Amino acid sequence: MKIDCYLSEHCGSYHQLRENIDRALAESDLRADVAYHTIRYDEAVERGVIGSPSIWVNGKDLFEVEGSAGLA
Q1: Which pLDDT band, with edges at 50, 70 and 90, does 67 fall under?
Q2: Is 72 within 8 Å of 39 (Cβ atoms)?
Q3: Residues 37, 32, 17, 62: is their CA dihedral positive or negative?
Q4: Predicted confidence band of residue 1 (pLDDT cuts 50, 70, 90)
Q5: What's the predicted TM-score (pTM) here?
Q6: What is the mean pLDDT of residues 30-57?
Q7: What values do phi and psi take at 24, rounded to 5?
């Protein structure tokens, strides 16, 4: 499994997000290649990232919602 986490430059969620993902994987006895990406607004629009943080599993936004791409 591949997990990509996208965060804005000013998002303060990195440490809590990392802790939550590590705990969820351990409790589920799952293995994943997890990558954390800091991205700018223009990169978010280009990639279709809706908010910060955004979690993508195997190339799909885990919490996909309707809306314009960009970081909130």
Answers
A1: low
A2: no
A3: positive
A4: very high
A5: 0.83
A6: 93
A7: -60, -45
Partners of 33 in the beta sheet?
2
CA dihedral (65, 40, 55, 24) positive or negative = negative
Task: Using only the alpha carbons of the chain, give its radius of gyration.
Answer: 12
Residue 58 zone, left/alpha/beta (φ > 0; ψ -120 to 50; rest): left
What is the sign of the dihedral through the CA atoms of 56, 57, 62 and 66? positive
* Residue 11 burial (10 A CB sphere; 0-12, 13-18, 19+): middle
Q: What is the pLDDT of residue 66?
A: 64
